[in-house]
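Re: Re: token formats

Sure, here are both.
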Amino acid sequence: MPPAASRGAQSPPPPVVELTFGASLQGRPLSGTRIGVGPRKLFVVANTHGGPEANTYQLALALQEYFRLNPDEVPPEVSLYIVPTVNPDGLALGTRFNSRGVDLNRNMDTNFDDCPENDWRTTVEGAYGYVSDTGGPFVESEPESQVVRDMVLDASAVIWLHSSGGDVFPALCEHAASIALAQAYAQASGYRYDRFWINYNITGGMHDWAGALGIASITPELATGTEPELAANLAAVQAVLANYERLLPAPSTTIEAASGVEMPALLWRYWRAHGGPDWFGPPISPVVQSNGRATIYFAEQHLVLTPEGADALQPVQRADGGQELWTEYLLHAPESAYQLR
């Protein structure tokens, strides 16, 4: 009998993969490591605040090295993504902001959740009562923010590492999965659990943006501004992995309702995160199933779900043409070709 390779057998995917998700304003890569190939995606994202929070960068590098050497600690149902910095320019320049002076953790579109107090704005609050116009000229104005938006769109959960408060808090609005994840992380790490960041109001925050999309989303604040605190955070990540069935929501097969039309959750996340009805117009078709892919037509454009492109930041394809293409489709497709599934 010929060897398996000559019979066309496929090799199992490698347990550790290095990925580049995009680039900063000055062209530095936003890169990470994926350990495991399971459908429940856990992201650990560090160093949103550049130089002043360089210890979170060091922590993420240490976590990367640990799990590269111990990939078997990631359960088969989980993919662990570790991203050491989403603000490489701020890290290189020694500033909290990106190279255009924008606070990336005040730049996300948080205007579609149920908590108006966290809505994005240009003028933002910071430590010691400091108020500045560093939220950016508009939501997700920065290339780093746009990479983050697409990088975690199909995540089950995101851990956003910051410093230094010595606590863990979930997304602001009442999101049960975020609260459960924050409480578990706090217990395992020894950090204090807080229901929200108590020192000042955060607007346009990454944790609130992700929570509004149904992603379990928490912010651990390291206790110091200098040390990576590996032991505490490794224990917490290990605890999350050990309890993944409870803490990492399975990829949703639930259909999300939008303007009377239902759609798969990932399509809804993409539509909502990229502007919703203001950009695409309202949805005008039910789900169209073709070649294993789901398509929905909107007034101005249509979206096609392509989950195999997730690591390339292309879980959904978009194209011009909505109403006209949907009308053309109705003229030629049998009714059985479009239905909710």
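Second one below.
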Amino acid sequence: MPDKEIKAVLFDIGETLVSFGRVSTARLYRQGARSSYDFLKGLDQPVGDFFYYFWRNLVHLRIKRLLSSMAGRDFDALALLKKVGTRKGLKLDEEQWRQLAWLWYEPLSKIARTEPKVKETLTALKRSGLKLGIVSNTFVNGCLLERHLKQFGILEFFPVRIYSYEFKFRKPDIRIFRIAAERIGEALGNILFVGDRIDRDMKGAIEVGMAAVLKDAYTNAGEKTPKGAWKINKLCELPRLIEEINAKNSVERTAFSV
């Protein structure tokens, strides 16, 4: 009987590690447009009037997201920002480009929340010997996500970080789960994946042979937990659940060997 002891845990970000909830994207986009526009104006960059700046970026983003949805792969929003901006004459160094991208993302970051004891939970998992990592479907560049996770004080827990825009596929494609397993250095059967989406997180993790845990969120409200997966309401439930899973697997291995 194969060893199925949980030795590593991979997390999704949105509505799993970090909760954004149902948001008004139009309001947040306008806030990001204003602060990024003011930043460029302060650098004497050729941005034109705000109305034109606002709609130019919005149209490019919507087109790119539509194409991304059709292609089944994500894109790098920072690369898009650079491409559109450079065509309009913006001249920024790498640090300025990243700050510009952050100003677009910052309104969303301000409404995000983590669970009250998330650091304690991650510390407990790490101290128990588990390896931790992230696998996220996203078009937000990793430098922004990592800046955000650092603000919450949890970035250091995740030496392995996989972002879908880096690949030609995304969850639930099992290839991204396989890559994550290779990078974290554990067999698929020894990895537990925690996410909020049944269609992306649970489907892919179960199909590839990982253990799967569904984190309760508005994104799965009213849906049944898939066969072969566990469900938790809070991340703080994970340490005990993993202990139970490992204990059960140990009993089954012993019985099988007898």
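The longest strand covers residues 131-136. The chain has a mean pLDDT of 95.
- S.
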